[in-house]
Amino acid sequence: MPQWIKRTLVTILLLAAIVLAARGVIDRGLGWCGLNRLTETNARYLDRAFDSALAGFMILSGIKSGLAIVEGSSVGVGVNVELGDVVQPVYDYVDIAWRAAMAGASVIALMQLALQGLAMVDHWALALFFLMWIIAWLAIGLWPRRFQTHAILKAGVRFTATLCLALYLLLPLTISGASLISQRITKPLHDSSQAQFETLGTTLSPEGLYRRFFPEGEDADETSPFDFKGKISKMGREVKALAAFLKLETEHLAATTLKLIAAYLFDCILFPLFFGLILMTMLKSGVRYLFELDRTSSP
User: Fold this and answer.
1) pLDDT tens per residue, range 218-267
2) Other CB atoms closer than 10 Å to residue 51's CB: what's the count?
3) pTM
4) Are the CB atoms for 142 and 122 separated by under 8 Å?
5) Measuring CA to CA, which residue among 200, 247, 210 is closest to residue 87?
């Protein structure tokens, strides 16, 4: 086949590929090959993860609000005792867990937006790849001795090829790989942490604490209205009992908070970063190998 006919056919094919890519036709074909299923699986995983993180965030918000009320209140009739110092340690751990849940939900929401954004830009990246390919193909055929220009154009083709593979495969596979490990490792941590926070939501509510440690009207006739010594002694016992109870709950809450932070750290940072680095290394090596098989050939 004459060289000019071959060059013309390749040029026509690449021009057609640019049009089909820009109109999303190639995207639909790739979707039928399995990319749509991968995207839907990732979307379901991120939706479940976000709902779980949001539920935990709302539970912790309720606990935090209740403890803030207790922290700023006082108990006693005639002789008041502030509860801020007693409640402060457990409030601090709840605040840390609340921040971790908010950060985790925010990162998951960003992943959802990134996954949705892929559908808006991936076909344009594919069209750009074919455009760079046709420019490099024509330049090599028309100006065969301009090796520096050829090297720059080949670098552009490699870059756009890497970009396309990253958008179509790297990011979706990163989320899928992270979700598979998350289901086996961190999901039990999320479930147990949320169950414990739900229990704490009832236990550490202002009504529950007051009813348990400062019952209204209880032993009201045991002391004279002017028996300040008896009142102080009674409040001292109640506050001491509350402090011991909150100390025990703080220990449980500290362990639960650390597990929650570890789960979000692995789910939102370490797992995606681990899979992303592995896949990016494989992707770049594969593209470099394919385009350097013959340095003098057209891309």
Assistant:
1) 444 444 444 444 454 555 566 677 777 777 777 777 888 888 888 888 88
2) 12
3) 0.72
4) no
5) 247
